[in-house]
Amino acid sequence: MRLLYLGDIVGRTGRDAVIDTLPGLRRDLALDVVVACGENAAHGFGLSPKICDELFEGGVDVVTLGNHSWDQRDIIPYIAREPRLLRPANYPPGTPGQGAIVMTDARGRRLLVVQVMGRLYMDPLDDPFAAARREIEANPLAGPPGRGVSAILVDVHAEATSEKMALGHYLDGRVSAVVGGHTHVPTADAQILPGGTAYQTDAGMCGDYDSVIGMVKEPAVERFARKMPTERLSPAGGPATVCGIVIETDDATGRAITIAPVRLGGRLAATMPAAPAPAASGI
Amino acid sequence: MRLLYLGDIVGRTGRDAVIDTLPGLRRDLALDVVVACGENAAHGFGLSPKICDELFEGGVDVVTLGNHSWDQRDIIPYIAREPRLLRPANYPPGTPGQGAIVMTDARGRRLLVVQVMGRLYMDPLDDPFAAARREIEANPLAGPPGRGVSAILVDVHAEATSEKMALGHYLDGRVSAVVGGHTHVPTADAQILPGGTAYQTDAGMCGDYDSVIGMVKEPAVERFARKMPTERLSPAGGPATVCGIVIETDDATGRAITIAPVRLGGRLAATMPAAPAPAASGI
Amino acid sequence: MRLLYLGDIVGRTGRDAVIDTLPGLRRDLALDVVVACGENAAHGFGLSPKICDELFEGGVDVVTLGNHSWDQRDIIPYIAREPRLLRPANYPPGTPGQGAIVMTDARGRRLLVVQVMGRLYMDPLDDPFAAARREIEANPLAGPPGRGVSAILVDVHAEATSEKMALGHYLDGRVSAVVGGHTHVPTADAQILPGGTAYQTDAGMCGDYDSVIGMVKEPAVERFARKMPTERLSPAGGPATVCGIVIETDDATGRAITIAPVRLGGRLAATMPAAPAPAASGI
Amino acid sequence: MRLLYLGDIVGRTGRDAVIDTLPGLRRDLALDVVVACGENAAHGFGLSPKICDELFEGGVDVVTLGNHSWDQRDIIPYIAREPRLLRPANYPPGTPGQGAIVMTDARGRRLLVVQVMGRLYMDPLDDPFAAARREIEANPLAGPPGRGVSAILVDVHAEATSEKMALGHYLDGRVSAVVGGHTHVPTADAQILPGGTAYQTDAGMCGDYDSVIGMVKEPAVERFARKMPTERLSPAGGPATVCGIVIETDDATGRAITIAPVRLGGRLAATMPAAPAPAASGI
Ligand SMILES: [Fe+2]
Ligand SMILES: [Fe+2]
Ligand SMILES: [Fe+2]
Ligand SMILES: [Fe+2]
Ligand SMILES: [Fe+2]
Ligand SMILES: [Fe+2]
Ligand SMILES: [Fe+2]
Ligand SMILES: [Fe+2]
Question: What's the pTM?
Answer without folding.
Answer: 0.97
